[in-house]
Description:
single chain; alpha+beta; Growth Hormone, Chain: A; 3 domains; 7-stranded antiparallel sheet; two-stranded antiparallel ribbon; 18 helices; globular
Amino acid sequence: MTDAIGQAESALPPQGARDASWFGHPRQLARLFTTEAMERFGYYGMRALLTLYLAQHFLFSDTTTAGLYGGFTALVYLTPLIGGLMADRFLGSKRSVKFGAILMSLGYVVLCLSSTGGAAKPFALIEGQRYDVTVSDTGDARKQYVSESGAALQIKGNDDKSVSLLRADGSEARRIAPGKFEPGGQRNPLYTLLLITGLAFVTVGNGFFKPNISTIVGELYEQGDRRRDAGFTIFYMGINLGSLFSQILCPLLAVGMGAWGGLGWWAGFALAAAGMAVSWLLFQFDGGKLDGFGERPEHADGGKDILVYVGALAVIPLIYLLFANLMAYVRPEEGSGFLGYIATLPIMGKVMFGTFIVAIPGILIWSWRNGSPREFQMMVAAIVLITFNTVFWTLFEQAGSSLTLFADRNTDMSVFGLFSITAGQTQFFNALFIVLFAPLFSMMWGALARAGLEPGIPVKFGIALVGVGLGFLFLVWGAQFADANYKVGLWWLAGLYLIHSMAELCISPVGLSMITKLSIARIVGLMMGTWFLSIAVAQYVAGVVAQFASVETVGGEVTNLKVSLDTYVGVFQTIGLVSAGIGVVLLVLSVPLKRLMHGVK
Length: 601
């Protein structure tokens, strides 16, 4: 959960020291800490709901849900590149943060409104004929029915992908051949429009907010001030504290917990909007505490502000079209091959993959022609690590998509038999473990460094990749102990998040620092952009990976929990083994990479 976007500014030169009055740091850090915590409260609270909201309220298929979620999170990592540029050239960091906060607040409000028109109505096409579907909650499981000849027949998926319609006594009234049963949902176009518009507002707003508040933190310290790294550590703790509480509270209000059914999706999004509004209020009405920080660049013309604002709003329809294109995506049939898969990619996928594939060799060719042999070797090391970083985040970011759906469908959410939590709330485990273990890891690395035993960056990256693979394999191991309802104990999922959080602490804090140290000075900005591009690509590919764990649903619910469990276990085992194997490869490559890095640690 440590936020990679925010870490970018730890590499920027600070300006202007201020008196220490808050835990030995400038007093302005307290306001920035709280502002960031409330902004992350809103964002991660919304993110904890998003996958389930798409699957259960709008009744999107797993393929559409995972693709839309992956596309959204990918753009969240891309837009800060533009938002940071607009701040540097025109608005300044402070105005950018305020503008971004307003857009994000509006986005959460629009998402709130998108849930007020009622859920999509489920239906099924059986051999070309449409049937309305009803969903009942029996306490232990939610069951789906179609009405035929006046009888309510329960829908049950079979292992061979056929579908049985069962009478009340459990006998089979009809069996539908594979491919002849097509579930769907009738969605109101207005509320679908509001959903995508809300996500577009959040995407653009995040681009202005996220990079620029970190820039202001950097301005609190003089060049060479040793408190600066500690100040950023405190600031990033606000990210995890904000996300920790929101990932508990937003799902609680939206869908409830235990016997309490919650207030509705609107309430969870409303709480996210409230958190974002508090973030804006803290910044807008700062009592002059932030005067002199994040001001407009001296060369900028204030008269052009309106053009930036209008331009940002004009981007929203473009993002809407990208999201709409993701929603229309249909996975190619098996056997279509790699080229067939690439040809059917949504527009966003083609642009991201194309840009990344061109950028990586392009940067290396430029470095070979324009840099010294030493600089070229360091750039090779940087590019290799960027590529492995992409693999890590692709698998780590299953948390918001496939792992959340696994929690909803195949996890026993009981906590020691005392109460149950919701699937969305399981995402809080990561933030909790980061808060608990980040100080311990910091002390551990420090102690190893003093003893001359601290592992190098490639080794840390390799350990992280092995760790994320072991997390999935741990959950796969636990799946063999699933109960009669094909549900795995909650603590196996919590164990996965524990392992993943420790893996994250090996890779996240060192990535951007590594880029600044290995890059040729003339293109360090381009390399930063490539780093964020790699994370954006990882977010998108994470959605693609989650699509392989897609399970057929009717009315937002799976029709065969055994098939669901087998599907998730198969995908998690594959990516677990692949990740661990790639991590071992990187550990082997760490020796030659260390030589290419020429002493950079």
